[in-house]
Amino acid sequence: MTSDPKAGFEAALRRIDERLEALLPPTLASHAPLGDALRESVLAPGKRLRPLMTLLAAEDLGGSAAAALDAGCAVEMVHAASLVLDDLPCMDDATLRRGQPALHVRHGEDVAVLVAIGSLAGAYQLIAGIDGLSAEARVEAVAILSAAVGVRGLVGGQFEDLRGGRHRRAVAEIAAANGLKTGSLFSAAVEIGGVVAGASGGVRAELRGFAEELGHAFQLVDDLLDRAPSSSALGKDVGQDRNKSTIVSMMGPAAARRRIERHVSRAEASLTRVFGPSSRMHGLLALVFEHAMRQG
Ligand code: GRG
């Protein structure tokens, strides 16, 4: 196994980065530094896992690659907005993101809030206008993305995390918040891939099940890495809030690793039911988690 979690996906990742760059041209900087800041936040070197999943799911279910690419870029724009907001002093108060000073550190909180709103609006504009998708599919994709952002998604998960993070919570409560904070956007990413491909309700439900397990495992790895002394495969900017109560801090790293393994094997089982015993999504899952588990 290679030590690079992105190995084998370079071509798809290049397409994603090129499309994001084209969607956010330098001329966007007409209101500098707003345009520059928007480009910086979206184009900063992230892993692009969510758009990659949209792309792989749609293509491997027979959907249009171009439509999947734009849908994935919209999901990444939502993700970028969530990271900008998450780092604000009134939220996680983080100064580093993707190895660089957080957006509000570089451009101020006012610009950071506007960038997040602009990125979110851009995502909906993009997904609502995707070429080659029926009007019904576009509406469905917008509805899925909206649900993933809203009070039963990122917003609700973030709220629970902020309010409950420093209190002792049951493991199940933390897991539920993790599902909203992390799983909901993974779920939207793969389900929108299914919508692009015209997948059945059953396949879409299976994709959501996969993403929920993935989200739980991913958040556990994220928390494990928060305790690790150095940065990692998940591109983690470590040590931002070591007082937060997490499943890892409550159960310890060994039990957390066992939970991760259980989530990953359930995620794999869902993928197998959709794509057969081996697929590019299986490959992505294995690469990300094998690498992360060695680091954490
Ligand atoms: C209105 C979009 C919006 C959000 C409001 C602030 C907020 C509510 C939610 C934040 C949720 C959040 C930051 C969850 C963390 C998810 C997570 C595991 C992020 C790290 O993802 P990676 O590792 O990051 O894929 P990269 O940088 O590689 O893209």
Walkthrough of the structure:
About 70% of the residues lie in helices and about 0% in strands. It is mostly helical and about 300 residues long. It has a two-stranded antiparallel ribbon. Helix 7 (about 135-150) runs antiparallel to helix 9 and helix 12 runs antiparallel to helix 13. The mean pLDDT is about 90. The structure holds geranylgeranyl diphosphate. One of its GO terms (molecular function) is prenyltransferase activity. Belongs to the FPP/GGPP synthase family.
Please outline what is shown here.
The protein is an all-alpha fold. The chain has helices at 10-23, 34-43, 49-60, 65-87, 103-107, 109-128, 135-149, 154-164, 171-196, 201-227, 247-251, 253-275, 280-295, and strands spanning 96-97, 100-101. 70% of the residues lie in helices and 1% in strands.
Shape: globular
Hetero groups in this structure are: geranylgeranyl diphosphate
According to CATH, the fold-level topology is Farnesyl Diphosphate Synthase
The whole-number mean of residue pLDDT values reads 89
Count of separate DSSP helical elements? 13
Poorly predicted spans = none
> What is the assigned CATH homologous superfamily?
Farnesyl Diphosphate Synthase
End-to-end C-alpha gap: 17 Å
Rg from Cα: 18 Å
| Helix-strand string | HHHHEEHHHHHHHHH
Family: Belongs to the FPP/GGPP synthase family.
Protein name: Probable farnesyl diphosphate synthase
InterPro entries: Isoprenoid_synthase_dom_sf, Polyprenyl_synt, Polyprenyl_synt_CS
Keywords: Isoprene biosynthesis, Magnesium, Metal-binding, Transferase
